[in-house]
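Checklist before submission:
- one chain only
- standard amino acids only
- sequence pasted in full

Submission:
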Amino acid sequence: MASLRRLVASPALEPLLAYVSRPRTDPVVERVALIEDLAQLRDSAQHALVLLTRSASVAASSYRFDVALREARSRGVAALVLTARDVAHVTPTAAAIADRSGMALLGTGDTVDLAVLATAIAREIAGDAEVALLRAHTTLRAIDAHPATGDADGLLRFWDPATGAKLWTLPVHKSAVIGVHLEGTDIVTRGFTGEISRWQLPRSEAMIAACARHSPCGIVP
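Returned file contents:
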């Protein structure tokens, strides 16, 4: 857990984040999440700092973004992060909604790797670098569970943040995985057909040891 102002001012994040709309209060941040579609904000956890991919951030100038901000407010989201090219398109209405809700709007550079950013945020929140890396990359790389081609296999994929190698996969849904977020040490996933599942996130050394013993989740080189 950390205050948003402390996170933004930290040496690791100050070069990566800047305020677009600063709330009067200082929101508490407990987790980091990444979404590809604004509709996923309805499943966001309280006190989350939510990174928007380009496909979600591009809607900043639309009425749909205003609606999404109200949804985020109802969920108790601490802040949304947009890409720099979309920051200029945030409307006064959107800024006012964020201000009234005590939620911050932040911008990050167009060339910033969201995996790097999420990892840095998670490390600052959690303190334990190893667990933070695993959590951040689990969230980010889980997008791989539903390829853009639509040929989804319903798998959640875990990656080694240091090497980029796949560690193991977890079958979570029979349909495409369209939503992933973290609640403490749990992963909550949503399938394309509407089903929701909760999975406990093990420590990375336990995960690797389990994969070494059981071939169905064997380490992928």
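Reviewer check: Residues 142-151, 215-221 have pLDDT under 50 and may be disordered.
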